[in-house]
Amino acid sequence: MSDIESLTRLPDHFDGTVRLFPLPGVVSFPHVMQPLHIFEPRYCDLLTDTLAADRLIAMATLASGWEPDYEGRPALEEYACIGRIVSHTPTDDERHNILLLGIRRVRILQEVVTNQTYRMAKVEVLDDVYSPQLAPERPLLKRLLLEEFRKYIPESALAQENFSQLLDSQMPLGIVSDIIAYTVGIPVARKLQLLAELDVDQRAKMLIAALSPSPKQGDACGPENTSLSSGFPPPFSRN
C-alpha cells in the first residue's frame, strides 16, 4: 500500500463516530490538504483527544443563521468530510497549526450526546460512483474541466507548478474534481452541492458549469469574478 493510500484509508475499527469541527463558510473535500489554525478552547480539547486517538476530524459547515448561537450548537449542513491530521505544530501562545488531509465524504446522521466540550456525530461514509457506461467519455470530461480551471490559475511560479502537476497526473476524475472544487472560490452553497454529489461525472459537469461564464451573466461567473479560494495553494483557515 502506498503512503497516500494509507493516509486516506479509514481505520478498520472505524464505527462511524466522528469528532466535529464545524466552521462557517468552509467546505473541505477528500484528497485536499486543509490548513487550520486552532485557538478556541473547545477545539484545542478536540485536537488533544484526536491526536491521542485516531487523528480523524470531520470538517462540517455551519448552516446559514449560525451567528447568534456560534458558542452553542448551531445547525450544520448535512454533508461533511472526514480528514486525518498529517501535521501538527503548536505555537508559543497555546494555539495550533495543523494540516488536515481530507479522506472521505460523509453524511451526518445524528449528533452524539457526550460530556465533551466539542460536538460529535454518527456519520454515513459515502463512496464515489463511476458509471461504467460513461467510462469512454471520462478522459474528455477531465480535459474540459482542467481547461476551465486553467483560466483561474495565477501567474505565480508556485501556482503554475501545482497546476502542471495536476495536469500531468493520472488522478481519477473524482479526485481532480474535488481538488478544483476546494480551490476555486465559488459560493459555499455550490461547494456543498459538489460535496454531496456522489456521481463523479455529474460532479465534474456541475463544476464545469460553475467555472464557465453564463451567457445571461456575461463574465459574472468567469475568472475575473470567481477567484481562487484564498489563493492556490490556500493559506490557513482560522476557527
From TrEMBL:
The keyword Membrane does not apply. It comes from the Bacteria. It is an enzyme of class 3 (hydrolase). InterPro entries: Lon_prtase_N, Lon_prtase_N_sf, PUA-like_sf. GO terms for biological process: proteolysis. Residues 18-215 form the Lon N-terminal domain. Residues 214-239 are annotated as: Disordered. The keyword Oxidoreductase does not apply. Its EC number is 3.4.21.53. One of its GO terms (molecular function) is serine-type endopeptidase activity. Keywords: Hydrolase, Protease. PANTHER family: ATP-DEPENDENT PROTEASE LA (LON) DOMAIN PROTEIN. This is Lon protease 2. It comes from Rosistilla carotiformis.
